Amino acid sequence: MPLLGCIADDFTGATDLAAMLVAHGMTTIQVIGVPTTPLPEADAIVVALKSRTAPAAEAVADSLAACDALLAAGAKQIFFKYCSTFDSTDAGNIGPVADALLHRLQSGFALACPAFPANSRSVFHGHLFVGTSLLSESGMERHPLTPMRDPNLVRVLSRQTEGGVGLIPFATVEEGGAAIRQAINRLRDGGRRYAIADAVTEAHLHALGAAVANHALVTGGSGLAMGLPQNFRDAGLLPDRHDADALPEPRGAMAVLAGSCSRATLGQIGLARDHVPTLELDALATPDAAALQRQAEDWLEAGPLSEKRPVVIAASAAPEKVAALQARLGRDAAGSLVETALAGIARTLLARGVARLVVAGGETSGAVVQALGVDRLRIGPQIDPGVPWTYAEPAGIHLALKSGNFGARDFFLRAFA
Ligand SMILES: Nc1ncnc2c1ncn2[C@@H]1O[C@H](COP(=O)(O)OP(=O)(O)OP(=O)(O)O)[C@@H](O)[C@H]1O
Ligand SMILES: O=C(O)[C@@H](O)C(=O)CO
């Protein structure tokens, strides 16, 4: 039975959390969508939903269904994973989902902390920073679906819940376990439902993790999960594991499929272009999914696939080109055109012997995973913080799902090293 049951609000975010748990000694399986079959055996199960930007009622219903499945399987604690940039709007979905989970778990209080120092997300005096920029000056203020214009997470979460939101400030977190527990008790006794916790270093996240050992619900980015496996070890429930990230031997041809248009992904494509065969599809010039897929198939016909180095197929484009296609077709239609093309290309790649595939972008990953009929991912070693290799079943391939903003510039090359 799983010790930790997790609910993630998107696919790459789920993989990020799962990687954190594996790196800290828990075997972890990511299940795609609300579970409809018995859950597999692992120390932690991460249910990957697409609930970040769904209507709040749908996000709540899916999250509760996932929670019920995890509890029925025996999970002792529930972790609700959202983005390290707290992606949400005043309508949700972090507040409404957390409220519903607390209610289902008959609990009255949860910690909330998206800090992830390895990827430069820190929380200080309740304000979220991306690198040295406030969240609201990090580019996230222009996010098409969840623009983050207020960096003060106490205010942001307060607008999404009727429960009171307090703060566990830096000085308290820095003092460690006893001080954090006292602060939690004070806030809970004072009627607060949530506490945003400051965290700048991994030591802070470990201290926070230890302080919530007995909480029914913990909410945050993957960083906050790094302290949780030790709680289960301390309770004698989790053996010391040195092979939690073991995966079957990799084999087969290698490919990268990119649909993310983030600055990080564009940089990764730029570097890969100079080193490995790279096909850049132009969705603006050819706004037709079937035609784009045919272009990729024609390109593959010449035989660039190899077991020695990857090929890269990218639909990613600079912001002006993305905006132009969106203006012509509408934002959703532009996105799904490209997603349909990349999903079709993923099927073609597998049919041509690709068995090691990196996919860049959360929505893109969702489309590819669906097209390949993948329903669970066994989590392996990390390539870069937040992006592990996984073994996808029943497809039987190695798959890495990269969040748009994650990964160093040489990610597409180093992933296969
Ligand atoms: N050339 C393009 N023009 C318009 N839309 C595009 C183009 N290329 C990709 N897209 C779409 O942009 C969206 C990118 O979203 P996706 O979630 O995959 O990446 P991301 O937002 O960078 O990643 P994450 O969600 O992990 O942060 C997808 O819907 C994709 O189909
Ligand atoms: O927390 C993060 O930044 C990522 O796991 C993510 O959720 C990106 O969509």
UniProtKB/TrEMBL annotation:
Entry keywords, A to Z: ATP-binding, Carbohydrate metabolism, Kinase, Nucleotide-binding, Transferase
- Molecular function terms, GO-annotated: ATP binding; kinase activity
List the catalysed reactions.
3-dehydro-L-erythronate + ATP = 3-dehydro-4-O-phospho-L-erythronate + ADP + H(+); 3-dehydro-D-erythronate + ATP = 3-dehydro-4-O-phospho-D-erythronate + ADP + H(+)
Keyword ATP-binding recorded: yes
Provide the E.C. number(s) assigned to this enzyme.
2.7.1.217
Is ATP-binding a UniProt keyword of this protein? yes
Concerning InterPro entries, the annotation shows: 4-carb_acid_sugar_kinase_N (IPR010737), 4-carb_acid_sugar_kinase_N_sf (IPR037051), NBD_C (IPR031475), NBD_C_sf (IPR042213), OtnK (IPR050007)
Could you tell me which residue ranges the Four-carbon acid sugar kinase N-terminal domain spans?
A: 4-228
* Domain Four-carbon acid sugar kinase nucleotide binding residue range list: 255-412
**Sequence similarity:** Belongs to the four-carbon acid sugar kinase family.
Role played: Catalyzes the ATP-dependent phosphorylation of 3-oxo-tetronate to 3-oxo-tetronate 4-phosphate.
* Protein name (database record): 3-oxo-tetronate kinase
Organism in which the protein naturally occurs = Teichococcus deserti
